[in-house]
Write a structure and sequence with these properties.
Blueprint (H helix, E strand, L loop, with lengths): L14 H14 L6 E5 L3 H11 L5 E5 L9 H5 L5 E6 L5 H9 L5 E6 L6 H4 L1 H14 L2
Parallel strand pairs: 1-2, 2-3, 3-4
Helix pairs in contact: 1-2
Length: about 140
Amino acid sequence: PGYGDSPPAEMVATVQGRVAFLDHVLQELGMRRPVLVSPSMSGRFALPFLLARGDQLAGFVPVAPVGTKDYTAEQYRRVQTPTLILYGDRDTSLGAQALQSLRHLPGHRVAVVLDAGHACYLDKPEDFHRALLGFLHQLK
């Protein structure tokens, strides 16, 4: 809500509102301990959710998300959610920037999709899915 062609939504104007919104979506879908895959702009929702309620997630897969610099290394260090940091090697701005912040997450892994840009899941879908599925298979 509030991005692309969707109408502005006051409920997601704050960090707390975005956490509550995502929590509501997961509850409505009946999801228990999902793996949250967060490409690009969805970082504005996923990162605050991870920091506030990461214990509700089985895993987190940020794909060059925005907003990583909004949080401190100490905030990231408190997260215990298994994480796969994924980005395309041709995404020299947001991918590298996100990695600098997200590398503070304990127990994270990094997967770089070769010859792929910011939307590495579109540029190299087989490589993206191979990395994602490998991570999912290793979760408890």
